[in-house]
Amino acid sequence: MKNSTAIFLTSSLLLLLLLQSLHNVKASFICVGSSFLTNSSYHKNRDSLFSTLSYNVIANSGFFNTSLDNVHVLGLCRRDYERQGCINCVEKGIRQIKRSCSNRVDSFNWDSDEGNRVSCLVRTTNHSTYQRLELGPGTIDPNPVSIDTSTKNMTLFRQEWEAMVNQTLEVTTNDTLATTVLKNYGAVKAEFIEFPNVYMMMQCTPDITSGECKICLEECVTYFKEQFWGRQGGQVSRPSCIFRWDLYDFYGAFANVTRLPAPPRPLALIPRAQAISVTRLKGGIIAIFVVPIVINLLVFIGLIKAYSRMKKSNSGINEQHSDSGGQSMLRFDFGLILIATNDFSSENKIGQGGFGSVYKGILPSRQEIAVKRLTRGSGQGDIEFRNEVLLLTRLQHRNLVKLLGFCNEGDEQILVYEFVPNSSLDNFIFDEEKRLQLTWNMRSRIIDGVARGLLYLHEDSQLRIIHRDLKASNILLDADMNPKVSDFGMARLFNMDQTRGVTKRVVGTLGYMAPEYIKNRRFSVKTDVYSFGVVLLEMITGQSNKNYVESLGLPAHAWKCWIEGEAASVIDPFLSRSSTNEIMRFIHIGLLCVQEIVAKRPTMSLVIQWLGSDTIAIPLPTTAAFTIHLPRETNASDQAKGEGGALSFNKLSITELSPR
């Protein structure tokens, strides 16, 4: 009898451990939407984006969103991820989608691998999901083991569990706690009265707002309670978020987390002595099985880390921490840069400026990159290099160019960006033939994208940044002609409560700089607004500001036509078949941006509202500002020829960086 009992207990324990081990590797994937044909353009574009997704996720601090034609792909790794673990997880998710959703347009896969202490999301769609909350469809993966209710009070457990849900939601969606670009993440450990400690993790994609994140997670929690309440843990995932909880520290996410005590216990429920005995018994059982597993896991993790360090030392790309608040960055080996650019061959050269040259490169992974090689031995190059690395590691927006990494070996200072195939806006808008490709719909979309990029810099990013050199040549166009603001070498970072400043040097490009900045060296977000207004007017006219020198510049020319009732005369003839009313509204907005009185210029948030609505009342513009002469104290030696022939001086500035 005793032997039979022992065999039964042993078999039950093995079954329990088997069920638990199956629960330790989670994959919640789903395939929806229409189908596509094998070898179709959608299929090829999806696989092309997949081929570099894991690398791009690592290069962009754990979150990457990209598109090619109508294919949109997203990758995300849990915060505090291990680099190789994240790569393996994303690649595994891609394989799962290719195998299980081989010809479906929409799919997503939240994958958790506790052995490698990582979880990740891979998602594909035929529409943009960036900054868009999507709740369906959802998946659920409950723990196969139910909570033993024979000796425990489930009413008390539910009270404590729901209190913990509220605390985890608060941690996850509290913007003041989001210290990195991977916001919308929370991991909480709570001590329960009559149960083992409970562990809970919530995460949303970092592009949605905290309010949207809360909605998504609350839907997950409700779904779990309705479908699988009473299970000993589980995971619910939706396209925009994931919720998981369990009675053990799954994939080591809880080393440095918010710890919560149990909520006050109702006195009449269970005697204290019983609660203590249950807790001790449970703790003893857990210790017997968990301690050896934890020891083996720690040894295994140590071996993995040692192996990872060995691989990094022999690789051309290494993950490093810059002094940008601990944000991970990729440091490229100079030899790898030489291979990618074919020794900086002239055939690969795609740009030239006062800072140096830009080359197209191809990494061994076949990813295309843009390599910015700063002029050797230039003190000003040191400043621009430091500015762009420190700023762009903290910024992420679809309308800002992405910095993938850097290289600083010897006297070489190199910045590695995403490759933007359509070059810069000035190559289109100021070219008689290429300008034909820029329909009004495309021009208005570019204008709106630039405005959103500036709004992010001024108000929505973790930092408050004044670009100070916005112009057509610093607006890049991707394969879908989406604009990306670039060149942050002259950008200035502000504290949260700072609204304007004074600089010792005037930097930027003449014709795009606001008069108060040139004359008095005063700059603010309104100096960027002025530059945006000039670019907007250039987009409407199809002409560079420098072509209007005789009439004191494009802003002055447009203002003169406006007050004479002939504003329509400045519209590009190529737009003759477009909506004149909408174009006139854009001229109106452009003139408001270039007003001489700084206080009357709108903020970028107002500009975006006006651009997107034809029903909002817009104030009448006042006199436009213009300056075509260099300030008297500027020496000719401080001048440098900028892109597109525009006169730039002091191409670089000394910028003191401080956190917002």
Automatic annotation (TrEMBL):
Gnk2-homologous domain segment(s): 24-129, 142-250
Protein name: Cysteine-rich receptor-like protein kinase 38
UniProt-annotated location(s): Membrane
Transmembrane regions: 284-304
Pfam name, any one: Stress-antifung
Record's signal peptide: 1-27
UniProt-annotated binding residues for ATP: K372
An example Gene Ontology biological process: response to abscisic acid
InterPro entries given in the database record: GNK2, GNK2_sf, Kinase-like_dom_sf, Prot_kinase_dom, Protein_kinase_ATP_BS, Ser-Thr/Tyr_kinase_cat_dom, Ser/Thr_kinase_AS
Domain Protein kinase: 344-660
Membrane topology listed for this record: Single-pass membrane protein
Main location class: membrane
GO MF term (any one): protein serine/threonine kinase activity
Organism: Cardamine amara subsp. amara
One Gene Ontology CC term in the entry: membrane
Keyword Transferase in record: yes
Keywords attached to this entry: ATP-binding, Glycoprotein, Kinase, Membrane, Nucleotide-binding, Phosphoprotein, Receptor, Repeat, Serine/threonine-protein kinase, Signal, Transferase, Transmembrane, Transmembrane helix
